[in-house]
Amino acid sequence: MNSKAIQNRHESVLLPHQLDLIEQFFTPDTAQGLLVRWAVGLGRLHTASHIIARQLTLKPDARVLVLGPAALQLQTQFVLHRIGIDSLIVDRFRFREMQEAAETVKAPFGAGRAFLMSAEFAIRDDIRASLGTVQWTLIVVDEVHRIGGGKREALVRDLVEGSPDVRLLALTIPGIERIPHFGIQRWSETELRRQEVTDSTGRQIFGAHVSVLRQLEYRLSEQEQLLRSKILDSVRFVQSENGSPHVLTHTFERAFRSSPSAVEAALRRLRNRLSHFDAGALQLDEGAELLELATVSTKGTTAALERLGACIEMLDSVEQDSKRRAFEKLLAQELDSVSIPLAMCIFTEFQATLHYLQAVLDELGIESCAFHGAMSEREQLQAIHQFRERGGVLIATNVIWSSGAELGAVDSLVLYDVPRSEMTQRQLLGRFNRLGRNQTLTVHALVDATSDPSTSREAIDTLARILREDAP
Which residues contact 44 (CB under 8 A, 6 or more apart)? Predict the structure, then answer.
């Protein structure tokens, strides 16, 4: 099946850079590994799905493995299904079913379909052993920059060594320095940024709609700064008593940059853990929103518990939230009394802050919908569908980028919390700077000009640099 036939399959439309990649992959002298460094939003996964489609057409008995983040599996399956590819998401329950069915067939991983699996699941001993019995035809590694090192990299290396004729397609974004090669000696590499993308007539697609960054600085009051200092001192006291890693204080600093609700939620969870001597990993926000986990190893002393309780009471004594006031000022500028933008998304790191902002919007008479990690996959899909249908305001946490949601219709993105990581910034912006965007994306960033201006400045400079890369 050639590229033209693939392009017409199920009315799927491919752009020149996507067609070129497909042709490059199937050129006879192409290297065993192909590394695709495309900016988020340029259709890497969509193009990979067509490569899988051609592979299964050229070789009906092919076995295809797609490794990637668990949060993206449903999106991947949807993309494959849209062009008629038979695929299966393999989790523990599904693997047991496959093992039972394998009693009458040669192997659990049958031919002629694509198997979708998270790298974390694939490295489990029994799963890894089963994968190693298969002669794979094509392995696709999505978000390959997350694979580097340890058992995950070793897994892919072993699968490549065990399948001499396998081709490996690795997907990542520009700017990532270390990418594992999994023992493959010959690699081809292609890099593409948004300003380089054209349509079939040669017209630049993103050139007319450059993202705009607007900073909104706020300054904490003396009372807020004093409260921050006292609470962080108390957290350090608890940390020194429990031997917790530095991440405990670091996470509370992030909570302070977010909202009083995020701080209170973290304090209550920490105090509850200490009072019940619940040793082990402590996540300071619900819904798997944070990457960092602190470790609490011993029972909290009376002094530690009392200090945390006093901190919770101190939060109630603060009469103002300077960041909230800046946010309300932004809303007053962006929204008039009768209408709201076609689509506005507000991003925060913490689920507690999400609920806090929902209450703020409710007080202002503005309806909103939420999107966070504590929601089921079905609830998340419903939230995105509702937002796409009705527009309005969507408040979301980190799961907005890890889930692979496509939000190209959003015209206003409010970074209530500005991500510190460049990779997170790229992934987040990529959810909005999508192929097909026909309007300018305005990015509003709330910046704390008092607590840690150097950290805030670094994050903003990185954000501005990423947005400049998209400029013509």
Answer: 36, 38, 142, 171
pTM summary value: 0.73
Q: Kindly state the tokens that stand for 117.
A: 């699996």
CA angle 97, 98, 100 (to 5 degrees): 65
Are 3-196 and 212-219+321-469 the same fold in CATH? yes
Contact 432, 241 (CB under 8 A): no
Mean pLDDT of the chain: 82
Give the integer Cα–Cα distance in Å for 111 and 59.
10
Rounded Cα distance between 409 and 439, Å, is 8
Domain spanning 212-219+321-469: CATH 3.40.640.10: no
At position 344, the amino acid (one-letter code) is M
Q: Is the distance from CB of 368 to CB of 416 less than 8 angstroms?
A: no
340 — pLDDT class (breaks 50, 70, 90)? low
C-alpha to C-alpha distance for 397 and 79, rounded to whole angstroms: 24
Q: CA 117 to CA 178: how far, in whole Å? A: 23
Q: How far apart are CA 273 and CA 285, in angstroms?
A: 13
pLDDT tens across 138-197, in order? 999 998 988 877 899 999 999 999 998 999 999 998 878 789 999 999 999 999 887 788
Determine the Cα angle at 139 with ends 133 and 144, to 5°: 120
- DSSP three-state, residue 133: coil
The residue among 333, 300, 330, 338 whose CA lies nearest residue 414 is 330
- Taking CA atoms, 376 is separated from 7, 48, 348, 380, 386, in Å, by 34, 27, 19, 6, 15
Domain residue extents for the chain: 3-196, 212-219+321-469, 222-317
- Measured in degrees and rounded to the nearest 5, phi and psi for residue 319 equal -85, -15
Other CB atoms within a 10 A radius of the CB of residue 99 amount to 12
Look at residue 447 and give its three-state secondary structure.
Answer: strand
Smallest CA-to-CA distance from 408 within 434, 444, 378 is with 434
CA 447 vs. chain centroid, Å, equals 22
Query: Does domain 3-196 fall into CATH 3.40.50.10810?
Result: yes
Torsion angle of C-alpha atoms 399, 404, 409, 415, degrees rounded to 10: 30
- DSSP-assigned letter for residue 116: E
DSSP string covering 193-253: -GGG-B-TTS-BSSTT---EEEEEEE---HHHHHHHHHHHHHHHHHHHHHT--THHHHHHH
Neighbours of 234 (CB within 10 A): 22
What residues pair up with 470 in beta bridges, in sequence order? none
Token pair belonging to 274: 């200490």
